[in-house]
Amino acid sequence: MTNAVLITGATSGLGLAYAREYAKEGYNLIITGRRKEKIKDNANDIEHTYHVKVKVLIVDLANQEGLDYLLDEIKDDEIEVLVNNAGFGLKPVLAETAREEMDRIMFLQMNAVVILTQCILKKMLIKNTGTIINISSDGAFAVMPRNVLYSSTKLFIINLTEGLHMELEKSNIKVQVVCPGFIDTDFHESAGMNVIKKKKGFLKFSSPEDIVRMAIKDLKKGRVVCVPGIEAKIVRLMVYFLPRKMFYKIAINFTKKRNKKMNR
Ligand SMILES: NC(=O)c1ccc[n+]([C@@H]2O[C@H](COP(=O)([O-])OP(=O)(O)OC[C@H]3O[C@@H](n4cnc5c(N)ncnc54)[C@H](OP(=O)(O)O)[C@@H]3O)[C@@H](O)[C@H]2O)c1
Fold first, then answer.
1. For position 263, what pLDDT does the model report?
2. Which residues contact 157 (CB under 8 A, 6 or more apart)?
3. What Pfam family is a match for this entry (predicted)?
4. Structural domain count, the chain
5. How many CB atoms neighbour CB 125 within 10 A?
6. What is the DSSP string of 141-152?
7. Can you tell me the mean pLDDT for 47-68?
8. Which atom of ligand 1 is nearest to the CA of 190?
9. CB 186 less than 6 A from any atom of ligand 1
10. Distance of alpha carbon 12 from alpha carbon 33, whole angstroms
11. Which of 75, 42, 72 lies closest to 56, judged by CA?
């Protein structure tokens, strides 16, 4: 496939919003996910609405076998934009997290991102053009109890992207890391969290379409780290300026209140 945008985790939420946005601009798509029916329905809808080609790859990217399958499937494709979006959250505290779940979240949100990025970057460098968008979270700045591994992998993604930006200084390849706050997607339900998505303080949920719109606007301005929306920006600033002990207290209290609301 030529003129393609590869989006991992485009079955729903942010990945699907990216898929629609790039299809609207006329790009062909390669999208991945595990929920076969849902992703195929969305792919058909996108093809009919925007008259682009959509290749669907049903794959679990939280392990080496799945990643190898994806790399093999895309080896002849010309990918102009890569969106490393697939991700999930975990509910338990670290001490009670199953080893398998730890391995899966670290593989999906670190190994798969790095390996896929390197593989596609090598081809982009030959043509000296391309865009790599990595999805992080405001949780990368504000680590909270019960979110330790998730936040740590998302912080890894920020460093990876900023480092890459500097390494690619002399090229025409753009990189961006997007760090949203709460988004109204399947994310919380998939992690077994029972959330009430009412707009209240920091618990305001943005739409995935709004996040994509803000991120693409920032990308065009050349902003490497995109923190979309006022809530995520406040979180980032607060965490940066607060003394650490005060931040820990706020984070612990916030988590207790949130867990009550989310029935954790
Ligand atoms: N929602 C939020 O509040 C929020 C806030 C900040 C950042 N984010 C980040 O935004 C990204 C997208 O999440 P979302 O909010 O749009 O949630 P979502 O609707 O649950 O989408 C997550 C996507 O990742 C895919 N995925 C999950 N595990 C996978 C695996 N093992 N292998 C392959 N694909 C997998 C899912 O597809 P299948 O289930 O079909 O596999 C789905 O398409 C994630 O990286 C998340 O960390 C979300």
1. 58
2. 84, 109, 110, 113, 134, 135, 136, 140, 177
3. adh_short
4. 1
5. 14
6. TS--TT-HHHHH
7. 98
8. 20
9. yes
10. 9
11. 42
CA 243 to ligand 1 center in whole angstroms: 32
pLDDT, residue 260, reads 74
Ligand 1 contacts CB of residue 13 (under 6 A): yes
- Position 199 pLDDT exceeds 70: no
Residues in the chain: 264
- What's the 104 CA to ligand 1 centre distance in angstroms? 13
Q: Relative to the CA of 189, which ligand 1 atom is closest?
A: 20
Residue 240 belongs to domain spanning? 4-261
User: Count of CB atoms within 10 A of residue 237's CB?
Assistant: 12
Number of neighbours of residue 133 by Cβ within 10 angstroms: 23
The domain that holds 157 is classified in CATH as 3.40.50.720
pLDDT (mean) for 219-234: 97
Longest dimension (CA), the chain: 54
Could you identify the residue written with the tokens 């959330």?
195
The beta strand positions in the chain, using DSSP E, are 4-7, 28-33, 54-58, 79-84, 130-135, 173-178, 225-226
Using a pLDDT cut of 90, give the percent of the chain over it. Answer: 89
Residue type, 116: L
Q: Which atom of ligand 1 is nearest to the CA of 9?
A: 43
Q: Tell me which of 113, 187, 227 to substitute to probe ligand 1's pocket, judged by most ligand atoms within 8 Å of the beta carbon.
A: 187
